[in-house]
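Customer escalation, tier 2.

The customer says the design service returned an amino acid string that "doesn't look like it belongs to this structure." They asked us to rerun it and document both sides in this ticket. The original structure tokens are below, unchanged.
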């Protein structure tokens, strides 16, 4: 039998982790193990964000352990056996071992169990069903999770179709995990199951689809996974608005080849065709107003973006659009150009992040002090002085601004 350990993991050695696992083990020796992403990512050399613990203790027993040890405990998912325990400001999700009683493709009714094998069987992929005990020794109930993590394979536990029917979101999760962790071609059996059951995506809430999409497109290089989604028409079914595949592909290629920072929302914008598509996506998937506005701004054409923009033109564009929208538009224009003139585009991205738009050094009170009566004319004068200030490339000269104000005010007299 293959063995492995993660005793070297910094998160495992952390005082907060040790305090919690010691308290749980004191209540039931050998009854609690770390599970899922923290174990998988440690084995694969990836960053660990959250620490989850599976336990044979019931939710009331978990709460009792936490209270006795002086930890804060919140029943955040009590119907599914999850208690969030906070140790020295560090949250941990502690969940009782479960087995599925029934599922409808969106949610499951569960029963608690003491069987590690039953708990593993209800998970999605073998690499996500790896457990580590208090000493960091790995337990692999499915028999394939450890090999998958080492090889970078995303394989469903047991029968892929059965796992998908339990929760159709697993179709998108299959591609998301391939985008983040796969080092091998997409598993053909998993791909076939996703293709056969793609209609199940129609039953999912749009919020879950949008959340999963952002996670997928945040992967360092999602191209192979995106191509797989497209090949079996999962992308067209779940995300019909994201049809600009050539621009998205080119953008991802640029980011991978030039080691540029990844932004999932820029990639979403690249996959959209225009502002109307952005608004349609926002309406259908119930994006936040902030997300909608960002995508619409990224796809605007009111400011011409070229690789040969002068620094002065760049500053004017940033002042009008803001740094975020300017970067999005530069990246989209760069991708649309086919990736040529990389040095010039990259310089624009860098300058666009460094230069912060200044504030016009002029107030309404100063405008009225120059003889402009309160009312609409104040705003008119403000805009005219601002236009001059922008055209002059944002001079940091209060005296010049006041002189221009006087000239504009006199012209209105």
């Amino acid at each position: 039998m293959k063995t492995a350990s993660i005793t070297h993991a910094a998160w495992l050695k952390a005082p907060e982790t040790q305090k919690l696992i010691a308290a749980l083990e004191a209540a039931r020796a050998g009854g609690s193990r770390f599970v899922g992403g923290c174990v998988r990512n440690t084995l694969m050399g990836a960053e660990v964000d959250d620490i989850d613990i599976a336990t044979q203790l019931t939710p009331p027993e978990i709460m009792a352990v936490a209270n006795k040890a002086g930890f804060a405990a919140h029943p955040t998912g009590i119907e599914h056996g999850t208690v969030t325990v906070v140790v020295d400001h560090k949250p941990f999700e502690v969940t009782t071992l479960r087995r599925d009683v029934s599922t409808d493709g969106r949610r499951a009714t569960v029963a608690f169990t003491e069987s590690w094998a039953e708990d593993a069987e209800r998970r999605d992929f073998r690499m996500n069903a790896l457990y580590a005990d208090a000493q960091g020794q790995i337990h692999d109930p499915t028999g394939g999770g450890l090999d998958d993590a080492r090889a970078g394979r995303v394989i469903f536990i047991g029968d892929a179709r059965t796992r998908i029917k339990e929760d159709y979101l697993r179709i998108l999760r299959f591609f998301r995990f391939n985008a983040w962790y796969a080092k091998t071609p997409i598993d053909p059996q998993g791909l076939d199951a996703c293709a056969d059951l793609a209609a199940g995506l129609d039953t999912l809430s749009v919020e879950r689809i949008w959340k999963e999409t952002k996670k997928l497109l945040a992967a360092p290089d999602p191209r192979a996974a995106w191509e797989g989604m497209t090949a079996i028409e999962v992308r067209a079914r779940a995300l019909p608005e994201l049809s600009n595949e050539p621009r998205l592909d080119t953008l991802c290629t640029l980011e991978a080849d030039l080691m540029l920072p990844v932004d999932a929302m820029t990639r979403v914008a690249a996959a959209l065709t225009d502002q109307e598509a952005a608004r349609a996506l926002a309406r259908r998937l119930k994006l936040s107003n902030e997300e909608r506005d960002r995508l619409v701004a990224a796809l605007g054409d009111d400011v011409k973006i070229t690789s040969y923009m002068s620094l002065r033109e760049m500053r004017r564009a940033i002042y009008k659009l803001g740094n975020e929208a300017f970067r999005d538009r530069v990246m989209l224009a760069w991708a649309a150009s086919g990736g040529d003139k990389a040095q010039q585009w990259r310089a624009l991205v860098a300058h666009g992040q460094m230069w912060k738009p200044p504030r016009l050094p002029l107030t309404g009170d100063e405008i009225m002090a120059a003889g402009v009566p309160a009312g609409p004319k104040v705003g008119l004068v403000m805009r005219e002085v601002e236009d001059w200030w922008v055209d002059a490339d944002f001079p940091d000269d209060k005296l010049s601004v006041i002189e221009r104000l006087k000239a504009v005010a006199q012209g209105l007299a």
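Tier 2 assessment: The sequence is consistent with the input. The chain has 22 helices and nine strands. Residues 376-391 form the longest helix (16 residues). Sent an explanation to the customer and offered a walkthrough call.
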